[in-house]
Design brief:
Elements lengths: L13 E6 L4 H16 L4 E3 L14 H4 L12 E5 L7 E2 L1 H6 L2 E6 L10 E4 L6 H11 L6 H14 L10 H12 L4 H9 L4 H12 L1 E4 L4 E6 L1 H6 L10 H5 L7 E9 L2 E8 L6 H6 L3 E2 L3 E6 L4 H16 L1
Parallel strand pairs: 1-2, 1-3, 3-5, 5-6, 8-9
Antiparallel strand pairs: 1-4, 7-8, 9-10, 10-12, 11-12
Helix pairs in contact: 1-5, 4-5, 5-6, 5-7
The chain binds manganese (II) ion.
Length: 317
């Protein structure tokens, strides 16, 4: 792993950002750096987009939500965490004002949009990368830093069990636990958060589940009428595709929901040596090799469905 030439004894101020619709990896990396900056009186500023309730447990998150810092200086470096593309950074208004951008990320389709880019597609998470960076600079971790880093790692690895978990990931997790971060508490907060509506969403996903190619490809499709009837929000779909992916033969699993008429959001998961980021890219999305997503209004339901089935077929041959 080649480390970037990053020096936290920066001359100028830094604004820490992650992607829109933040998840515990982006938010955890941001919060870890923010706590580190506070501890060392560094001119670090941070802000975070609206986040789901379950992330409330992450130390410091409520202080940063939803607003640009009032005292944001005229000139600053933007540190983008866990963002594959510049257009994913939140808030976009800060992107325009930033003097330059540092890009720390692990998405395979990261397009190196920064003045400095450190992209490690083999890292489990941006939090794992940040741990390595802090360790390389001999930085001591206070507990809120370790808790946030472990939250990001646990989230992006599905509780330390996805194929992106390396021995290094486990070593880092152990060190963070030695710091006092609690794996079981974090796992509970991150994964045991299904609501009645999540279960309703799962029920719909199961009702509309189709099996193809000897059950190697699973496709579930929830149309706008169902989304509207049950008043489903994007947060109600969290974890559903992962549940479908527990099918023993599945290699590619896709969950589509029509959140507005003609607007299709898709979550893709893959197992057993298939990749899905390249399928997502065909409809303007992206992500990781084994977990990707998209949102498109550029094709009809029939076109999208046919495209997904054809793509899956070609990969499963
Ligand atoms: Mn991530």
């Amino acid at each position: 792993m080649s480390l970037p030439i990053l020096n936290f004894n920066l001359q100028g101020p830094c604004l820490l950002c992650t992607h829109q619709d933040p998840d515990p990896d982006g938010a955890g990396a941001l919060l870890a750096l923010w706590h580190f900056g506070k501890e060392h009186y560094l001119p670090f500023f941070a802000c975070i987009d609206h986040f789901p309730n379950y992330m409330n447990f992450m130390p410091g998150i409520e202080e940063l939500q939803n607003a640009l810092p009032r005292q944001l200086p005229d000139s600053f470096t933007l540190i983008a965490l866990d963002c594959g593309q510049k257009s994913r950074i939140w808030p976009q208004s800060a992107v325009e004002k930033a003097e330059n951008i540092w890009n720390l990320d692990h998405h395979i389709d990261n397009d190196a949009f920064g003045a400095i880019n450190w992209v490690e597609p083999d890292a489990s998470s941006t939090c794992e990368m940040l741990y390595t960076l802090m360790e390389s600079q001999g930085i001591d971790r206070i507990l809120p830093v370790s808790q946030n880093l472990l939250a990001g790692i646990v989230f992006d690895t599905g509780g330390l069990r996805f194929p992106n978990v390396s021995m290094r990931t486990m070593e880092v997790a152990i060190q963070l636990m030695k710091d006092g971060a609690c794996l079981s508490t974090i796992s509970d907060q991150v994964f045991s958060r299904w609501t009645r509506k999540s279960f309703k969403t799962l029920m719909l996903a199961l009702q509309h589940l189709d099996f193809f190619f000897q059950d190697q490809f699973l496709l579930s499709w929830i149309d706008y009428a169902s989304v509207q009837h049950h008043q489903l929000g994007e947060e109600d779909f969290e974890g559903v595709v992962q549940t479908l992916a527990q099918h023993c033969s599945a290699r590619i699993v896709v969950l589509i929901r029509e959140m507005e008429p003609g607007v299709f959001r898709g979550s893709l998961r893959s197992k057993k040596h298939c990749t899905v980021h390249d399928i997502a890219q065909l409809v303007g999305g992206g992500g990781h090799k084994l977990a990707a997503g998209f949102s498109t209004s550029k094709c009809t339901a029939r076109e999208l469905r046919n495209l997904l089935i054809l793509q899956a077929e070609s990969k499963l041959q």
